[in-house]
Amino acid sequence: MGDKKPEAETDLNIDYEALKDLNIAKDQLRMLKSIFDSFDLEKKGEIAVDMIGQILDMLGQQLTPDELQKIIKEIDEDGNGVMNFGEFAHLAASFLIEEEEDTEQILKELKDAFRLYDKEGLGYISVDLLREILKELDDKMTPSDLEQMIEEIDTDKSGTVDWEEFKAMMIG
């Protein structure tokens, strides 16, 4: 009775405990397992290391042939030409973590830019200032395009743009 794992812990046959050192969310692990399983056509629990390039490409990572060879060498330590899900998860997790750090860095830079425009520290900038910023970013923008953008950005129609509205505009 006590040795049966709860259903959530056994989905997709992922050993969450063995992979807890990855420091990624269970939903990300499930996504990685689905990707892994889609390449494990013979359902052997392993995939050929020469699939790594294609998989990383799916995850948005374009690598040079040299970078790819280096990664394959690291992953396939025993040289058997295949990797199991644990090895795959460790590889993919490093790219997921890099992406999160990039996002955090971008948000920090956006926050710094917002603070530059919000000189008085009021927590918002005027739509007039935003109009000037947008003109600088794209000098081909027509006045009607600008007004349309301002309307979309200033969602609460306050005549000001707060951090959340600014962030939403910059991230899209």
UniProtKB/TrEMBL annotation:
Coiled-coil ranges per UniProt: none
The protein, known as: EF-hand domain-containing protein
GO MF annotations, alphabetized: calcium ion binding
SMART domains: EFh
PANTHER family: CALMODULIN LIKE 3, MYOSIN LIGHT CHAIN 1, 3
Keywords associated with the record: Calcium, Repeat
Keyword Calcium applies: yes
GO terms for cellular component: myosin II complex
Residue intervals of the EF-hand domain: 27-62, 63-98, 105-140, 141-172
Keyword Ribonucleoprotein listed: no
CDD domains the UniProt entry points to: EFh
Alphabetized Pfam families for the sequence: EF-hand_7
InterPro entries, sorted: CALM/Myosin/TropC-like, EF-hand-dom_pair, EF_Hand_1_Ca_BS, EF_hand_dom
Upper lineage: Eukaryota, Metazoa, Ecdysozoa, Arthropoda, Hexapoda
